[in-house]
Amino acid sequence: MVALAANLVIAVAKAVGGLLAGSPALLSEAAHSVADSLNEVFLLAALRRSRRPADRRHPFGYGKERFFWSLLAAVGIFVMGGCFSFFQGFEALRNGAEEKHSGYVMGLIVLGVAFVAEGLSLVRALHQAHRQGGRSGLRDPALRTVIAEDGTAVLGVTLAAAGMALHMVTGQVAWEASASMAIGALLVFVAYRLGSDARDQLIGEAADPEAADRIRELLEEQPEIDSVEALFTMKTGLDSALVAARVDLVGGLDSEVVEEVAVRIKQTISDAVSEADQIFLDITDRQAREAEESPAATGERGGA
């Protein structure tokens, strides 16, 4: 909410100042702020929709909504911010840009106000990440996107101000055009990184290695489990994960005991690893499986 309020105010100020001053760098920053404002709306939608409980159509819940809307935010940064900034830079180089002294002053004042507002928003986001556990707090794609946007905005404002100042001193529009294209390159890079993270989570990213290792340790500690043949995990939301394990139990257990053991193991994992909310155990017989996969059973190496 802080980032959205800051971006809306700054977007209007940059757009008005850019049009009055005829500054390509300032207009690029205005596009950047507009893109950021729309992205905050996307992220607010993600926070609300991802909290919906599971239903028959989505039995594993709606946790991945956060990843989907974060991907849309990355696309918005790329298209509305990066591409428009490149366009402004090329247009300035091709057609030139004449600014009055008052235009420079107005633009620099707007950028100064934007720097303060974006800086405050960045500090607020970093404080929230620290309160949510530092690096672990950055697992939240919404918070991670806000921090990336605000950090990029602070750097982008600095580039725009440097470009305008050099244009004013030298009279060469190439400085301001270069600043605009540098802002575009920065936005494209940030959009790629955020989009790549969201893509990995949407197509089925494994749970954190620490959580997966802890689950494997718990399984191997169970006296009824002879071996853990396979362990699969997948994030289904920010704080939820699906766990599927193929285990070989010790011999001599009847069906009722197996049921009791399975229930106890699931409860043990759920208590120790809070994000493991969907747990499935596949009881397998290693010797039987090895016999099925042997050359004699498959027909390989001359087997029947």
Structural commentary:
The protein has helices at residues 2-21, 24-50, 65-95, 101-131, 141-170, 173-202, 209-221, 255-272, 286-292, 295-298, and strands at residues 225-237, 240-249, 276-284. The protein has 304 residues and is mainly alpha-helical. It has a 3-stranded mixed sheet with strand order 1-2-3. Helix 8 (255-272) links the parallel strand 2 and strand 3 (276-284). Helix 5 packs antiparallel against helix 6. The model is unreliable at 294-304 (pLDDT under 50).
Please estimate the helix content.
55-70%
The geometry reads as: elongated
Give start-end ranges of low-pLDDT stretches.
294-304
Gyration radius from CA atoms, angstroms: 27 Å
Major beta-sheet overview:
3 strands, mixed
Number of strands: 3
Strand order of the largest sheet: 1-2-3
CA-CA gap between termini: 68 Å
Mean pLDDT: 79
With helices defined by DSSP (H or I, 4 residues minimum), what is the helix count?
Answer: 10
How much of the sequence is in beta strands? Answer: 5-15%
Structural classification: mainly alpha
SSE pattern:
HHHHHHHEEHEHH
What's the SSE blueprint?
Blueprint: H1 2-21, H2 24-50, H3 65-95, H4 101-131, H5 141-170, H6 173-202, H7 209-221, E1 225-237, E2 240-249, H8 255-272, E3 276-284, H9 286-292, H10 295-298
Helix pairs in contact: 1-2, 1-4, 2-3, 2-5, 2-6, 3-6, 4-5, 5-6, 7-8
List keywords for this structure.
304 residues, mainly alpha, three-stranded mixed sheet, 10 helices, 69% helix, elongated, disordered C terminus
